[in-house]
Write a structure and sequence with these properties.
- The structure holds 2 protein chains of 2 kinds.
- In chain A, 20% of the residues lie in helices and 33% in strands.
- Chain A is built from 8 helices and 19 strands.
- Chain A has helices at residues 15-20, 40-49, 69-76, 124-133, 158-163, 210-221, 231-240, 275-284, and strands at residues 24-28, 31-36, 51-55, 60-65, 89-95, 101-111, 114-119, 140-143, 149-154, 178-183, 186-191, 200-205, 226-229, 289-295, 306-309, 312-323, 328-335, 345-350, 353-360.
- The longest helix of chain A has 12 residues, at 210-221.
- Chain B is an alpha+beta fold.
- In chain B, the strands form 2 sheets. Chain B has a 6-stranded antiparallel beta sheet with strand order 1-2-3-9-8-5. A 3-stranded antiparallel beta sheet of chain B has the order 4-6-7.
- The longest helix of chain B is centred in the C-terminal third of the chain and has 16 residues, at 116-131.
- The two termini of chain B are 23 Å apart.
- The relative contact order of chain B is 0.24.
- Classes of the chains: A alpha+beta, B alpha+beta.
- Chain A binds chain B through residues 24-25, 35-36, 39-41, 232, 235-236, 298-300, 302, 321-322, 324, 351, and chain B through 35-36, 38-39, 57, 59-62, 64, 83, 90, 130.
């Protein structure tokens, strides 16, 4: 992800905590973020087996309010927000008029006149501008990122850990639902969402409470085997769970059909940005489709490596790397639709050699129920 | 930290010379910067390399890093244990996780490399840049 060289690097409220913990820091979407603390493999394992804590305060929040809030949300996003109940969230795409992704996002319905959007860090200002430009309904749009810290508590023991700090009965919050309540005496939006493929929660609250919240969760999590997790593990976890990352699987050149995200593309809901293009593409079919693959050897596919059909390059890897829990090397790539059949052989161009691989069903990893 | 009998490159390889043979590895700084190493690709015994040529590849979870030969010569031995235990590079980069042994063509190549003190200063400078 590129950022203007002159841009000031942004910091979350926990920046000094990460540095004190000895995290390796990187610039991600213009933010100075921890990539790892003890190591990506150990952090990944902690989330699959126990619990991990992530500072994801770089993520952006945009709030849409007013009697016409729903109309604006419906106009700019491809999922059907009219189907949301109060307290429910869904995954969606912010669309260009060409039916491609400005961003992907979570839409939370707080009330019929208040929607809370969680968007990607590097896109938030652009998303905000895009939503405002398309606000022909007179809804109120707030770029609210600076008003929130966001922590992700993820893993099979996340509920047990978080429950120690809140009276909200967490088990009663269903997957992709949320509630408001106090966590460690701080007012929070508590959502049962995540980007890891595990059970878990994402909490949003005022940044001034960040350090206390982080320390309380880390301390109480010690006996549970908690790990502080950086963006490195966040990426391996989401890839293993088969989730898209903006700038890799999706961007403003890819459509939901191509990205295998037809389940969030509700053309029947009525008009929205890009709908015409998407209706046509649905009828005509796509020329490329996002597919999961696994390597047949220890060679690792990386972002940008070519996908080969015999000798011919027919696509590119969008994300590739080791899947630490599955102990395989996996990836996502755009391939011609006819190649997208589980088990079908493909080649990946790795440093001038053809590394054999095969198409696999996504998600690569599914948590045990 | 950095053995005094090694020579070092700016790309964070080390070279230990014993007679006309050199042992090559990557430094502790390099393994730390890479993070968890998951794959190592090494040349075949008998391969002839020039100084600065790509000797192999070390991959971590996140990144691919090429390793450059600090000197010219012929590969006489590769550390085959690393194929099944690449994590050794994180655990013991200066000793058991050596990468290759090379018969050195020209001892003058090694003379151009940094000694431990110069390398220590070099990485201290790098670390300063990163925390700034």
């Amino acid at each position: 992800m590129s950022t203007p060289a002159t841009a000031e690097v942004r910091k979350t409220a926990l920046n000094s905590v990460h540095r004190r913990m000895g995290a390796k820091m990187v610039n991600f979407g213009g933010w100075d973020m921890p990539v790892e603390y003890t190591g990506i493999l150990a952090e990944h394992e902690a989330v699959r087996a126990r619990v991990g804590l992530f500072d994801v305060s770089h993520m952006g929040e945009i709030e849409i309010r007013g009697p016409h809030a729903l109309e604006l949300v419906q106009h700019v996003s491809c999922n059907d927000a009219a189907k949301l109940a109060i307290g429910q969230a869904h995954y969606s795409g912010l669309m260009t008029p060409r039916g491609t992704f400005v961003d992907d996002l979570l839409v939370h319905k707080i009330s019929g006149a208040h929607y809370f959007l969680c968007v990607n860090a590097g896109n938030q200002d652009h998303d905000y501008a895009h939503i405002r430009e398309n606000n022909k309904f007179g809804a109120e749009v707030e770029n609210a990122g600076s008003r929130y810290s966001q922590l992700a508590i993820q893993g099979p023991r996340a509920l047990e850990l978080l429950q120690r700090f809140t009276k909200v009965p967490l088990a009663s919050i269903k997957y992709y639902w949320f509630a408001f309540g106090e966590v460690n005496s701080v007012h929070c939006l508590i959502a049962r969402t995540g980007y890891t493929g595990e059970d878990g929660f994402e909490i949003y609250f005022a940044p001034e409470h960040s350090e206390k919240m982080w320390n309380a969760l880390m301390d109480a999590g010690q006996p549970l085997g908690i790990a502080a997790c950086g963006l490195g593990a966040r990426n391996t976890l989401r890839l293993e769970a088969g989730m898209a990352l903006y700038g890799h699987e999706i961007d403003d050149t890819t459509t939901p059909w191509e990205a295998n995200l037809g389940w969030i593309c509700k053309v029947e809901k009525g008009d929205f940005l890009g709908r015409d293009v998407l209706v046509k593409q649905k009828e005509k079919g796509v020329n490329r489709i996002l597919a999961g693959f696994a390597m047949n050897s220890r060679l690792i596919a990386r972002d940008g490596y070519g996908v080969l059909d015999g000798e011919r390059e027919v696509g590119a890897v969008t994300s590739g790397g080791p899947a630490p829990f599955l102990k395989k090397n996996i990836g996502f790539a755009y391939v011609p639709p006819k190649m997208n059949a589980p088990g079908a052989p493909i080649g990946i161009s790795v440093r001038g050699q053809v590394a054999p691989a095969h198409i696999v069903a996504v998600p690569f990893y599914k948590r045990p129920k | 930290m950095y053995p005094s009998d090694f020579r070092y490159t700016k790309d964070h390889e080390w070279l230990q010379i014993s007679g006309s043979t050199g042992t090559v590895g990557i430094t502790d700084y390099a393994q730390h910067a890479l993070g968890d190493v998951v794959f190592v690709e090494l040349p075949k015994v008998g391969a002839k390399l020039k100084a600065g040529e790509v000797l192999g590849t070390v991959e971590s979870v996140k990144a691919v890093s090429e390793v450059f030969s600090p000197v010219g010569g012929e590969i006489t031995e590769v550390n085959s244990e690393l194929a099944n235990a690449p994590e050794k590079i994180n655990q013991d980069p200066h000793r058991s996780a050596w990468l290759v042994k090379i018969k050195i063509d020209n001892p003058q190549d090694a003379a151009k490399l940094m000694d431990a003190r110069a390398y220590q200063e070099y990485v201290a400078e790098k670390e300063k840049e990163q925390t700034a």
